[in-house]
Amino acid sequence: MEFQGIRFMLFCKRQISMCGICGIWNNPEKKPVELMVKAMEHRGPDDSGIFIDEKVSLGMTRLSIIDTTDTGHQPMSTSDEQIWIVYNGEIYNFKEKRELLEKKGYSFRSSSDTEVILALYQEYSDACLKHLRGMFALAIYDKRKGEGKERLLIARDPFGIKPLLYFDSGSSLIFCSEIKTALASMKVNPNIDPESLRLLMTHGSIYQPRTILKNVHALPPAHKMVLESGEMKISRYWSLDLDRYPTLRNSSYNEQVDFTCHTLSESVRLQTVSDVPLGAFLSGGVDSSILVGLLNRFIPDTIKTYSVGYEQEGQNLDETFDAERTAKFLGTDHQSVVVTGENVRDDFMDFIKALDQPSVDGINSYYVSKIARKDVTVAISGTGGDELFTGYPWFISMAKYENERNHPMCDYFNNVGGIIARQTIFNNYELKNRDNWIRNLRNNSDLLAYYGTLYNIFDTGGASKILSEKIRNQSNIGRAKSNDLKCFDELSYGNAIERTTALCLRTYLGNQLLRDIDACSMAHSLEVRVPFLDEAVANMALSLPVSSKLTRFSEFENPGHITYRESGTKRILIDAGLKMGLIREDIMNQPKRGFTMPFTPWLNGPLKEYLEDALSDSSIQSRGIFDPGEVEFRGFSKDILLKEAEI
User: Fold this and answer.
1) How far is CA 40 from the centre of its chain?
2) Where are the beta strands (DSSP E) in 94-230?
3) How many CB atoms within 10 Å of residue 274?
């Protein structure tokens, strides 16, 4: 081939920013990797680079956060050029690991965390992943064993904060940060995956490892892929677990509060590491208030904070009043951006391009990132607090469901009935009638099945009706939702609250929130950090008894409007925030609100032209995705909006 026996490198200095990685294993070529790097320019870079030899091509675009000098350039190699890395993310404990490695005799040419990862790989091989505390997607090429024995390690952080996609053609493997990047290689066909469409219409997001494209997959969070000797092996290197702090569950509540304060403080302290300006998203709720308050302790300058608000049409959804009160309480330099329907209309195509694949969320992240990027390069977000500390209404629903079913004979008959009802032979039978015994058995057979009923867009029957016949026949339509969820039930041995925590982390958060946040913030060259999604914080939360996180188990008629005091949710998080003086005393009288936007007036106003065009008979028929007879302007959009407003 063109580069047989030689190494090819491209280095280009630029003054825009963001992080993305890509590469081709087996049959690498110069042009495809150049095109992929070009397609990632919206993620950066402050610089970009390509490495190519006879076995692999590696490409990257870089947002310089740590070590903004040329010594942090990627692809980066060991001094003997036998190991190469491309890496997207931040390792927050890299200074500590560097000191340990220096004691072992390692020396460093840069002050970057990238070089520390390389040294950790030299010392521990694939087990180096267990030493990384942060968010990352990386690829490490190791050719120390010689020609024909090269290996490639690809890995993703434990919570899936950073994306990593791959396409296996059989003769080569392409990996990258975004679908746009994969398509830019000209080696990936843009064929839509019918099953991904079913998942999107049923659950509101595409469940990983699937993506919207048929042959492009996401490496799951906490997983690694090794390519060596003609084989590809994917395996998990980390998992959620209970009681990793074994004495915490039986400690006194005051001791638990103190430990929560310490663990959160340490996570935020580590995540302040940056050589560029850092700010935060501030909604005025519990999670963001605690994180911003802790930032004030570790950053000497006044923290810049940001929130999103609306005009009169969305006044009941506007969080800027609470955010401004909290900003005044914490002493931050706060800005609120007012988003109008006209703004969304004017930015709509840019937003769709940024999103990378369909979602029912993301616009809020797009706009708050847009305003923050004018001042800062890194922003802190409270994402993950609801999942770990029972912030959603469905935690109460799940606890109540478990309590009501606590009868051995009842469980036995429901479980047996559910096992039978979930068989694929009954898939079509369920679709014929919205109220039938198959659906009832499936939805109430066990806790996992019940969880599947709490957060979805269309139910199975609704998704079946909307999808075109061709898509319907290829999408495993009618599949029991519990079967979709089974692989995400990571704490199946826990109680209802613990299982729900894992399910929320691995479905709603991983497949929707984190994916959308990364795509929309990266569109504006902004890095978003999420201190709640730290291994130590998760281990701590999963070592606490339910009573420390949730004090009431009765459901409310309108759970979206009850206060923290009434619901008893986030008990220990609120008490920790109060003890540290980081949240207002009156926050207990504030309702827990999901983040929504005034889509109904927008879709009937400034966005109406987009919606009518997208849902016109001609558009529906030309795309062949939906059934024109089942999709009409008001009914289709209203169903989605009503479901979204319930989140």
Assistant:
1) 19
2) 134-142, 151-156, 165-168, 173-176, 216-218, 223-228
3) 16
Question: Which amino acid type is present at position 150?
Answer: E
Helix, coil or strand: residue 246? coil
Q: Among all chains, which residue has been given the structure tokens 């195509």?
A: 349
Q: What is the C-alpha to C-alpha distance for residues 150 and 159, in angstroms, rounded to an integer?
A: 29
Task: Say whether 75 sits in a helix, a strand or coil.
Answer: coil
19 in catalytic set: yes
Of 362, 636, 644, give the one whose Cα is nearest residue 524. 362
From the list 210, 183, 186, the residue with the least C-alpha distance to 196 is: 210
Is 119 in a helix, a strand, or coil? helix
Q: Is the pTM of this model over 0.85?
A: yes
Give the closest residue to 19 by CA, choosing from 36, 3, 38, 42: 42
Selection from 118, 183, 163, 148 nearest residue 26 by Cα: 148
What does R_g of the chain's alpha carbons equal in angstroms? 25
The DSSP code sequence of 302-340 is: PPEEEEEEE-GGGGGG--HHHHHHHHHHHT-EEEEEEE-
H or E segment at 609?
helix 608-614
Assigned token pair, 145: 């064993």
Q: Which of 384, 369, 375, 373 is nearest to 520 (CA)?
A: 369
3-class secondary structure, 81: coil
Q: How many CB atoms lie within 10 A of CB 353?
A: 12
**Helices 363-372 and 341-355 meet at what angle, rounded to 10?**
100
User: CA-to-CA distance for 599 and 441, rounded, in angstroms?
Assistant: 35
Catalytic-role residue among 19, 22, 176, 261: 19
Identify the CA nearest to 517 among candidates 369, 384, 372: 369
Contact 238, 556 (CB under 8 A): no
Confidence of residue 645 (pLDDT cuts 50, 70, 90): very low
Helices and strands per DSSP (H, E), number in the chain: 29, 18
Return the HEC string of 500-548.
HHHHHHHHHHHHHHHHHHHHHHHCCCCEEECCCCCHHHHHHHCCCCHHH
pLDDT digits (tens, 9 = 90+) for 205-251: 999 999 999 999 999 999 999 999 889 999 999 999 999 999 999 99
Give the C-alpha separation, 314 to 113, whole Å: 43
Taking only the tens place, the pLDDT of each residue in 170-200 is 889 999 999 999 999 999 999 999 999 999 9
Confidence grade of residue 640 (pLDDT, cut at 50, 70, 90): very low
Residue type, 167: F
Query: How is residue 24 written in tokens?
Result: 């081709």
Q: Give the single-character DSSP code of 219.
A: P
In angstroms, the first-to-last Cα distance of the chain is 54
Length of the chain: 647
Cα dihedral 281→283→287→288 (10° resolution): 30
Q: Which tens digits make up the pLDDT trace of 566-599?
A: 777 899 999 999 999 999 888 777 766 666 778 8
* β-bridge mates for residue 336, sequence order: 307
Q: What is the 3-state secondary structure (H, E, C) of 559-576?
A: HHHCEHHHHCECHHHHHH
DSSP summary character for residue 71: G
